[in-house]
Amino acid sequence: MxxxxxxxxxxxxxxxxxxPVCAADVKFSGSYIAQGYYDNNRTMxxxxxxxxxxxxxxxxxxxxxxxxxxxxxxTRFDAMEKIWGASRSSLIGSGAGQxxxxxxxxxxxxxxxxxxxxxxxxxYVTAGLWxxxxxxxxxRQSVFGTEFGDSGDATYGPRVWYDYTIGPWMFIALWDxxxxxxxxxSAGPGVxxxxxxxxxxxxxxxxxxxxxxxxAGLLIYxxxxxxQAGPNAIPGSNYSLLTDATGYKRQxxxxxxxxxxxxxxxxxxxELVYWTGKWQKGEMPQSTQADVTLDGxxxxxxxxxxxxxMYAGLTLAYVSGDDKATTDKNEFGAPAGSDWNPxxxxxxxxxxxxxxxxxxxxxxxxxxxxxxxxxAQIFVGVKPVPKLNIRASYTIAQADKEASSVNWxxxxxxxxxxxxxxxxxxxxxxxxxxxAYLWAGDYFKGTNNAATVDNxxxxxxxxTLTF
Length: 467
Hints:
Helix content is about 5%, strand content about 50%. The chain is mostly beta strands. It has an 18-stranded antiparallel β-barrel. A two-stranded antiparallel ribbon has the order 4-5.
C-alpha cells in the first residue's frame, strides 16, 4: 500500500508540474521548398561541358510557445537542407569557399553533417516589458528596410532586441554578436596570443514611421571587429580580423535609411547604405599595418506601375567597388543581402549556394549578396487569372571598379533575360517554372585576356509550401 501511495503521489506531482506547460498555446509555422536546376554552362567557358543539374530542398519549422500573456518562447529549425541524392557523411572534395578540413562538400553549400540533421537556428524569448517588446536569444540578423540589404534567410545569431511603439513610430535598440566569431586562440596559457579574444559585435539603434500606404526608417549601427586572421576578410563572413603580427581592429559606422510607399497605381521602394570608419586601425605595439579608412556606398530603388492585369517596372542598384589605387582607403560598399535575388542566375544566392561559383572567377556562396555592382533591370508581368503570375525581365550589370589591380579584363558582368510563371495550386502551395539566358560579359575572363567566354542558360522549377 505504501508503494501505491508513493507512485500516486509521484504521478500527481508530475501532472502538477506539467499542467502549466500543457496550458501554453503552441503555434507552428514554416515552409517546405524543393527546387530543381539545369544549368547548361556554369563555368561560362566555350565547349567546357560543365552543365549542372540538381534538386535541393529545405524544411523549415518555427514553433511559438505562448507561455502566458506577453511571454513567448520561439524556436526555428531547418531539416534535410540538402541536394537530393548528395553523399552522406563523406567529404567528396572542395570548391569555392569550401575545404575538406572544414567539413564542406562540393555538391552542397553546407556542411554535410548539417544537411543530414535538424539544425536549430532560432531560440529566443519575447517578453512584453515597459510598454515594448524585449527579445533575447538566437534570432534573425541583418534584416531592416527592403530586401536589398536583407540576409535574414541566411543570417542568424545571438541578439538582444528591444522595440517600443508609440502611435505611428517604432523605436528599436539592439546588440548583436556575429555567429562563428567568438573563440580564443589555440595557443596555451602564458602565450600572448591566448589573451586575444576574437569577436564581432554590433550596437544599433533604429526608428520606423508608418503611414497608411507606406513606411520609412533609419538604422544606425556601430560595428566592432577584432580577431585572429588576415586583413582581407569581410565583415559578416566567418573570418576574424585581428592578427598577433599585424595587431589591428575594425570600427565601422553604418547608416541605413529606407522607404516604401504606394502612390496611386505606383509602388516604389528604396534603400541607401553608407558605411564609414576605420577598416584597419592599429592597436597593438607590434602592429606594422598602416591605418585604412572605410568609405563605401550602396543604393537601391525599384518602382512598379500596376495597370491590372499587367504591371511593369524598373530596378536600379549600385554597390561601390574598391579603388585599388587608394591604399589608405577602402571604398567598397556593403554587399547586398542574400534575400535580394534580382535574377535567376546573376547574383542569385540559392543558385550560387547549391550549384557552386559562377564562372571561372565568379562569386563564392560564402559571401552572400552582390558587391561591386552597377545594375539596371526592366520588368513586365501579367496576371491573366488571380492565381497565375507571368513575369519577364531584362538586366544589365557591370562592376563598379576593376575586380583586381592586376589588369582585370573587363567590368562587364553581362546581360540576362529571365522568364518565370508562378501558379498558386492552393493558397499555401505554389509552383514556379522559369528559364534564364545570360549573355556573359568579359568580366569572367578575369586577368586572362585570351580566355574565351561563352553564354549560359538555365531552366528551373520550384515548389513552395507555406504553413
